[in-house]
Amino acid sequence: MAVTRSARTAWNGDLASGSGQTTFETSQIGTFDVTWRARAEAAEGKTSPEELIAAAHATCYSMAFSNILKTAGHTPEHIDTRAEVDFSTDGGAHISEIRLTVRADVPGITEEEFAEAAQAAKEGCPVSKALAGVESITLDAKLGVE
C-alpha cells in the first residue's frame, strides 16, 4: 500500500529576485517563504529545499534507527538526530554533503551493536536511499545524549 504526501510551492518572478511560498498540503502545518537568497546565502527567516531535506532525513533516520534497535531487542529511550545539508553553487548548483549526527540513550546495548545499528539505519532509511546521488553522506553516532 502506498501513502501519498504532498506539498506545493507557488513561485513569482525570476530566480535571483523572485520569491515563493511552500505549503505543506497533507499535514496543513503551514506555509513557509522561500527565496534564492535564503537558499544560497542567509536564511533570514525563510526556508530552503535543503532545510526541508534535512528535516526529512533527520526524521526518517530516527524512525529507521529506532526500528532497527527495537528489532534487535534494544528499545531506545531517546534518539536525537541532526541532519546538515550543504548546498553548493560551485560547478553548478547541487547538494554536496549531508552530515548525520545522532546521539541516543539505548539501555543494554554494546558500542559495537550500537554502531552496527546506526550504520544499518543510514543505509536503510528510505530518505538516505532517495539521496544516494549526494557525493557524501556521513554519520557520527554515539551512545549517550550530549
Automatic annotation (TrEMBL):
* Region of interest (Disordered), ranges: 1-22
Gene3D superfamilies associated with the record = 3.30.300.20
A GO biological-process term: response to oxidative stress
Which GO molecular function, any one, fits this protein according to its record? Answer: peroxidase activity
Q: Which SUPFAM superfamilies match?
A: OsmC-like
Among NCBIfam families, the record links this protein to: osmo_induc_OsmC
This chain's protein is named Osmotically inducible protein OsmC
